[in-house]
User: What shape does this take?
Amino acid sequence: MYTQAMDTLEPEPGKGGQAVQPAKQAEEVALQQRFDARIDAGDFIEPKDWMPEHYRKTLVRQISQHAHSEIVGMLPEGNWISRAPTLKRKAILLAKVQDEGGHGLYLYAAAETLGSSRDQLLAALHTGKAKYSSIFNYPTLSWADMGTIGWLVDGAAIMNQVPICRCSYAPYARAMVRICREESFHQRQGYEALLTMMQQGTDAQRAMVQESVNRWWWPSIQMFGPPDDQSPNSAQSMRWGIKRISNDALRQKFIDATVAQAKVLGVTLPDPDLKWNEARQQHDHGSIDWSEFWRVVGGDGPCNRERLGARVKAWQDGAWVREAALAHASKQAAAEQPACA
Ligand SMILES: [Fe+2]
Ligand SMILES: [Fe+2]
Assistant: This one.
């Protein structure tokens, strides 16, 4: 899945989210001008190309937070694989969770092209220095949550991620093209699972779906990140072509698309102020509780400790695999050395 606005961290000290413009050597000024011109022309930047240090750091932060979100996002759904109601649903859920692991790998590989090692990126996650999408700090309490996560959480992720397929940093854009194709399957399987319960299920199953939607709606629309006027790094990311559409515009697009889907499904979205605004040709919605968002991002959500604990344990349990792979690689390298005459 899953970016939320990955610009929730403070700008670098002293830089205020602005392009760095101290007195530079003439050569560096020329490089900066060439870089700016390429961005303005819509060119893609490749790993070997010169780039400003702040652009590199912004990308490492965003791509690694996105990668962390993919692998932490495996946890709430992974919990339900053994409890899926049919073999078909189990196979679909297994494939989806596996896809999320793959997305993490593409994204860690993209972040590594910027000069940060996998070990450094994961250390930042394990020590709580790096963030991941706050949506995964909520628990999955019923089977309906598997459908709702696909429909709303993967749905919000697609809305966020399609514009990143045109991100100025080419390895990130290429990874996103592949990821978005798989996210589309994730969204549809979730919606189809809910539709089956709503149309062919019992009253208890319909009530379970509604209860699930009630819990996931607000955290899902928070996935687009804070309002534009409280998103300090957005303007610079837009200037660099890392971000293409603002948080509020994406959130509005998601809400407008989801209202119609909810109607077909037969569920009520838990916002009494959600209504069509004829003048704007968009839906108005109720106010979002941003204090909850910041509390969960800050580490105090229902499952923050559990999620991080599970990732740290997985890393520790996998130590022998990494050691074995390194030992094997060094033996292979030694075997390939030409024998001395
Ligand atoms: Fe994903
Ligand atoms: Fe997904």
Q: What stands out?
A: Residues 1, 70, 100, 103, 179, 183 surround fe (ii) ion (ligand 1) (CB under 6 Å). Confidence is low (pLDDT under 50) at residues 6-17. The longest helix spans residues 170-200.
